[in-house]
Amino acid sequence: MSQRTVLLCDLDAFFAAVEILDRPELAGKPVIVGHDPRSRGVVATCNYEARRYGVRSAMPMAEAVRRCPHAVIVPPRHQRYAEMSRRVMEIYARFTPLIEPVSVDEAYLDVTGRPGLRVAAAIKRAVLQETGLVVSVGVGPNKFLAKLACDLSKPDGLREIRADQARAVLAPLPVDRLPGIGPKTAARLRDLGIETAGELQRRPLQWFNAVFGSRGPLMYRLARGEDDRPLQPQSRAKSLSDEITFDRDRPAAALLPVLLACSEQVGRRLRQGGCLAHTVTIKVRFPSFVTITRSRTLPYSFDDDATIYRTARELYETHILNTDLPVDDPTGRRLIRLLGVQVSGLVDRSAPRQTTLFDPESRQRQRLHQVIDDVRRRFGERALVRGRRLHGRPRRPSHA
Amino acid sequence: MRFVVDREALAWGLQTSGRAVSSRTTLPVLTGILLEARGNELIITGTDLEIAIRTRLPASDVQEGAVVLPARYLSEYARRIPFGQITVEVDTGLNQARLRWERSEYVIHGFPAADFPAVAAGDGSGPSLSLPRPLLRRMIQQTAFAVSADETRPTLTGVHLAAADGLRAIATDGFRVAIHRAGYDGAAGGLDAIVPGRALNELARLLGSDDDGAVDVRFGGSQIHFDLGDAQLSSRLIEGQYPNVLDLLPQEYPTRLRVDRDALLEAAERASLMSDSRLASRLIVLELEPERLVITSQDPEVGQAYEEIPAELDGQGLRIGLNARYLTDGLRALEAGEIDLEFIDPVKAVRISSPADDSYRYIVFPVRI
User: Fold this and answer.
1) What is the pTM of this model?
2) By a Cβ cutoff of 8 Å, what residues of chain A touch chain B?
3) Contact B21/B45 with Cβ under 8 angstroms?
4) Topology given in CATH for the domain delimited by A15-78
5) Catalytic site residues of A?
6) Cβ of B147 under 8 Å from any chain A Cβ?
7) Domain boundary among B62, B85, B115
8) Contact B280/A310, CB-based, under 8 Å?
9) Cβ B226 vs Cβ B237: under 8 Å
10) A173, A179, B84, B288: most buried, per Cβ within 10 A?
11) Which residues of B touch A300 (CB under 8 A)?
12) CATH code at position B49
């Protein structure tokens, strides 16, 4: 592979930073995001002020409060973080389509062919100006070195590790800085008299094979700062689904309202996640436990309930209602135990997207969906129901 | 029932009508092809219940009758007979045909003709028109490729034919729209029908390259019938209201780019090789500049493309993403020579036409980048 330029962008103390953004009076105080210290929760994030007192992510809340009794405790608001995360990812997407999100606050970007440090600085500037958040950016010829550059320079970091600097930068670092070396392996290496990556670099490949087994060649190269793992831009959720198991088997012909309810549910989650889907799948389980799935991939991407339901209903009518499947009920009615809808082939809404002749219409639908989702969020699931579902609306007995 | 036919005519008839026979059918009789001996003709009909193709060929020594024989075996048989006449005798009680050629004799088991679905020949209740073959062929070539394959929107899987200042054909899958307007003086009043794209593609095959004569088109019930003389194609029409496509299209396109069709077609096809394979669309990016059009594409895993062709820009330059396939499909439907691409902005429709030909418009919707 020719020389790549990879960035690792990591938002500084992300959850805490969002809280401080929304409540400026918290600025300068130690802030811990996590649930009530009396519960058994752990620290989700804390800002650098809290870290000064020894508070760390994933530390039990009770311990965190002991170390920093005057810290402000804020319960996490994941929806808000997801929204800010999406805004930041959208900024990244302006710089490159090749993004591998690692988590809500971390993503690898491939900007090969461009000056990495300049792009990194531009991203930092754009994120700060447009969201008020600080992002640390590491630049490297691969994912490992980009991540390392970021870790070594944060908070508010900006650093590049070039391929020709890699060995020297790595040499003094403890071995557990290498991906794949956790506390256990580090302890084993310590027993072998090895504490730093530099000491690893002096060992031959055969030694690595003996110590690490099949991971030997990989570790040998990582110790030298070599890493050819590609970016995996689609490593987000691959599908979303909703399904219902009935408390008693139900006749197939009466289940379109359930199909609609499931379609609306996955539609809402699709929109919340800022995704578009390409494929709709229905899942049907009969009382005999025979389970079938049928799917259809559309030539365009969608996130609206109408498209999901229309496609699911068509699959249901074609493959369940109008076929010669065995009938379990002595009265001749086709019975169903479980019904579900799944969407897959997910892509980010900000990815290039084919526009269509019917877009104005779907834009209107999109606005309608936003309103419906909003009303339901505020006033509950039952606040707005499609007319179709009022007739013979099923109870949702057990949610599988 | 009995008849004698020329092997070449029979092979042609079976192959032509056989195109309407579906290999995937739940009704056994539909794997067969209907043979009717009548007067001094053999009439061969194949159908999958959506379309039907009927061919007529001269026959001699006819004793009238009808039978359904398995299409594949009969067609393969006729194809393997090198020359001469084939004599067919059918025991319509046993639905069994005896085929004799030279010193060979084959017996093929079939189905009763009464089991074969009736193929209506048009009850004359709708409009009828007579279209010159070249006009019909061009109309199909320029529109049928743009129909949708998405069966959840059945109306879009067909071409909409309507009387409007002559005859107008529209096809769209939502991503591009093909509009053909033909000057037609005959009475097409009241014509408003959606013809399945597949029926028109089959019709185009039947039309071949023969430019002489006209095709009679009749509407009746929920069917359309094309009569080409020795062959007829019937198709069910698609029910439903065709969307008001013209109202959804922009009227004003302030920017115009004039380019050579072949240069653009070739460049777009090459650039599409590098389009991002992770996307559903074959994305290429067009950049309009005063004296040139730049086309780029990139697949981060494969490489990058840069193409530049001379162009004449009238209006604002812009940068727009298109699905290469939708672009090249439309370019192929146009005659070679200078063509115009008209733009509004990077997210609105692009209109493609030929300054020398007012009868055709192709509108393609961009990829938002």
Assistant:
1) 0.59
2) 97-98, 110, 112, 230, 233-234, 278, 296, 298-301, 310-311, 314, 347, 351-360
3) no
4) MutS, DNA mismatch repair protein, domain I (3.40.1170)
5) 106
6) no
7) B115
8) no
9) no
10) B288
11) 174-175, 280
12) 3.10.150.10
